[in-house]
């Protein structure tokens, strides 16, 4: 019988020869991640269980990224509680306030390899599937169970595979591809399914671009987002970790697999309009004045994104009346951007560059919008109130569209 990549990974993790979609399995966790915002509840519930020590202090990763540095007394209290837990449990992989966004630093620092089962108390944990792992978000109380036993139950998902072909036009990027796919199937088009990205277009993409695709699988309801590991994957991880790994690939005749063919040869830059990620239109059809531009997040705060934006911003200024925030996704990204002179380009263009963190993405930290204001963001969600006031509006785009729009003061095509 034939199986999908997700079925094969979950079979391995639950110590079974095979599992099929719809089956309930108890699986061993390879990596468990929680951060400063969702971690305190996980710790609180873990302590209620009555177990003194976590199952494996080497397999738990705790970065601070959502509210760093602390922007309120509540945030400071959360940081204190998590630091105490890290010390008490001797958690080896703890990253304090200057490491970066969790979904960026886990792959960067060698915590993710193909074939693993990864859980995190954040819905965009699916990002790590870009390296051929099964990665998914879980609740904080579920994480308490993982802390205690290193196991969690899963319903084995069916798989929706996008076979993406065609060469992308100039100024069209992975963000445009994923917005187009979400617009195609809808916000619930892949509910509790594993979403795979394959085809010649994906094969040509960098790991950074593949992370964009996997990151937003959740925005179409997906349980996880995966790209089969290949030579680019192995090149990415070889200098970051010496962990053992296993590569799994999907059998194309697997019974639980649905394949959708998508040709992106004629795709234009895309934008998701308020207040849903599947409300997608070509940029050419959206002529809207903006108040703020946010370049960053676990979706598009990587070095490639900063480069794309800097090419457009170099020698230009952000329009009067518009503020542009640039937030590198990690310390590594920030350092490389400094070395390449990208940060100077942003500062010279009158952008505000801040420390690696989630920024305004979650609506809980630096750069919130007020009533009636419009934000153009390279992040992954534009729900009402997502980046501040519920009376504001959030549009989503690529880094290139964000940069061009910042210069023009309205949502614009990058020329």
From TrEMBL:
UniProt KW Nucleotide-binding keyword:
no
Q: Which cofactor does it need?
A: [4Fe-4S] cluster
Q: Which UniProt keywords apply?
A: 4Fe-4S, Amino-acid biosynthesis, Branched-chain amino acid biosynthesis, Iron, Iron-sulfur, Leucine biosynthesis, Lyase, Metal-binding
GO MF term set: 3-isopropylmalate dehydratase activity; 4 iron, 4 sulfur cluster binding; metal ion binding
**Start and end residues of each Aconitase/3-isopropylmalate dehydratase large subunit alpha/beta/alpha domain:** 7-285, 287-409
Please give the InterPro entries that the UniProt record associates with this protein.
Acnase/IPM_dHydase_lsu_aba_1/3, Acoase/IPM_deHydtase_lsu_aba, Aconitase_4Fe-4S_BS, Aconitase_4Fe-4S_dom, HAcnase/IPMdehydase_lsu_prok, Homoacnase/IPMdehydase_lsu, IPM_dehydratase_rel_enz, IPMI_cat
Q: How is the cofactor bound?
A: Binds 1 [4Fe-4S] cluster per subunit.
Q: Which reaction is this enzyme known to catalyze?
A: (2R,3S)-3-isopropylmalate = (2S)-2-isopropylmalate
> What Gene Ontology biological process does one annotation of this record name?
L-leucine biosynthetic process
Q: Which CDD domains match?
A: IPMI
**Where along the chain is [4Fe-4S] cluster bound?**
298, 358, 361
> E.C. number, please?
4.2.1.33
**According to its UniProt record, in which pathway does this protein act?**
Amino-acid biosynthesis; L-leucine biosynthesis; L-leucine from 3-methyl-2-oxobutanoate: step 2/4
Q: Which family is this protein grouped under?
A: Belongs to the aconitase/IPM isomerase family. LeuC type 2 subfamily.
Q: How does it assemble?
A: Heterodimer of LeuC and LeuD.
Query: What this chain does, per the record?
Result: Catalyzes the isomerization between 2-isopropylmalate and 3-isopropylmalate, via the formation of 2-isopropylmaleate.
| The protein, known as | 3-isopropylmalate dehydratase large subunit
């Amino acid at each position: 019988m034939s199986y999908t990549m997700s079925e094969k990974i979950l079979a391995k993790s639950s110590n079974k020869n095979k599992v099929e979609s719809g089956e309930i399995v108890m699986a061993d966790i390879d990596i468990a991640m929680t951060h400063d915002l969702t971690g305190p509840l996980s710790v609180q519930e873990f302590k209620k269980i009555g177990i003194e020590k976590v199952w494996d202090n080497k397999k738990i990763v705790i970065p601070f990224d959502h509210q760093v540095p602390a922007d309120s007394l509540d945030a400071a209290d959360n940081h204190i509680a998590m630091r105490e837990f890290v010390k008490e449990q001797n958690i080896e992989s703890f990253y304090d306030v200057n490491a970066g966004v969790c979904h960026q630093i886990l792959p960067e620092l060698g915590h993710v390899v193909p074939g693993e089962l990864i859980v995190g108390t954040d819905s965009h944990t699916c990002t790590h599937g870009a390296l051929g792992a099964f990665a998914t978000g879980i609740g904080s109380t579920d994480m308490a169970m993982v802390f205690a036993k290193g196991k969690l139950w899963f319903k084995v998902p069916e798989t929706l595979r996008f076979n993406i072909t065609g060469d992308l036009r100039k100024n069209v990027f992975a963000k445009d591809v994923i917005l187009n796919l979400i617009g195609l199937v809808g916000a619930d088009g892949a509910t509790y399914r594993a979403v795979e990205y394959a085809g010649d277009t994906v094969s040509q993409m960098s790991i950074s671009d593949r992370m964009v695709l996997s990151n937003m699988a959740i925005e179409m309801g997906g349980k996880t987002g995966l790209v089969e590991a290949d030579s680019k994957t192995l090149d990415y991880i070889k200098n970051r970790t010496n962990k053992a790994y296993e590569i799994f690939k999907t059998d194309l005749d697997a019974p639980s697999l649905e394949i959708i063919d998508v040709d992106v040869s004629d795709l234009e830059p895309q934008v998701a309009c308020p207040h849903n990620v599947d409300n997608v239109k070509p940029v050419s059809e959206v002529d809207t004045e903006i108040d703020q531009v946010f370049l960053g997040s676990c979706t598009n705060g990587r070095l490639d994104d900063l480069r794309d934006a800097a090419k457009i911003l170099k020698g230009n200024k952000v329009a009067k009346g518009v503020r542009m925030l640039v937030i590198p996704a990690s310390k590594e990204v920030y350092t490389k951007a400094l070395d390449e002179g990208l940060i100077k380009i942003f500062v010279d263009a009158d952008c505000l560059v801040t420390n690696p963190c989630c920024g305004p993405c979650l609506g809980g930290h630096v750069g919130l919008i007020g009533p009636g204001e419009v934000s153009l963001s390279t992040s992954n969600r534009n729900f009402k109130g997502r980046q501040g006031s519920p009376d504001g509006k959030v549009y989503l785009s690529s880094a290139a569209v964000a940069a061009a729009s910042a210069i023009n003061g309205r949502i614009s095509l990058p020329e």
